[in-house]
């Protein structure tokens, strides 16, 4: 895994880097909040290990800011703080786990492996296209991190589009696969729901993802 370690204590930073590299990981270390946050946003890491007490900021703000910027990389918090309310606060802001200092290096590796397994499992429940994100488990749709409310039919339609992006889908296919009914050429309900969905996406995005292909159907463009 590619792991980012944001930790200002040189002894802890050196220890964590050595342990992680010994276990076959590629490690980048940063000792301050500002550079750590920038690196987390600009680079593609598999995991972030984040200290709460940083010289130029709070790990809480770093975690909150990267989540606000739609960075979904798993975050493990390292901290000397043992109070339950601190742990709860970090988990609520988007951290995936919390390890109290001093810690056993075997537990560190075990927790990272557990986070990785959970993330891989959760990945099966997520669909994405550009700025669009759909959580199948929570039935939640977001654009640039902002939740967009959909009706049940709109959500099911969007999910089918995302699972079949970049190909022409006929109205007959949508009727059968989304609504489980035979398509009636005399009705206009599929076009109506597509119009609803397109309108809600355009209220939060400049991209028109749904393209109408005359006499053929629709394509959900996701380049």
Automatic annotation (TrEMBL):
GO cellular component terms, semicolon-separated: cytosol; protein-DNA complex
Residue ranges of every copy of the Response regulatory domain listed in the record: 2-116
InterPro entries with a match to the protein in the record: CheY-like_superfamily, OmpR/PhoB-type_DNA-bd, Sig_transdc_resp-reg_receiver, WalR-like, WH-like_DNA-bd_sf
Gene3D superfamilies, per the entry: 3.40.50.2300, Winged helix-like DNA-binding domain superfamily/Winged helix DNA-binding domain
Molecular functions (GO terms): phosphorelay response regulator activity; transcription cis-regulatory region binding
DNA-binding region: 124-222
Domain OmpR/PhoB-type: 124-222
Example GO BP: regulation of DNA-templated transcription
Keywords: DNA-binding, Phosphoprotein, Transcription, Transcription regulation, Two-component regulatory system
Modified residues (4-aspartylphosphate): 51
One Pfam family it belongs to: Trans_reg_C
UniProt-recorded name of the protein: Two-component system, OmpR family, response regulator/two-component system, OmpR family, response regulator CiaR
Organism expressing this protein natively: Gracilimonas mengyeensis
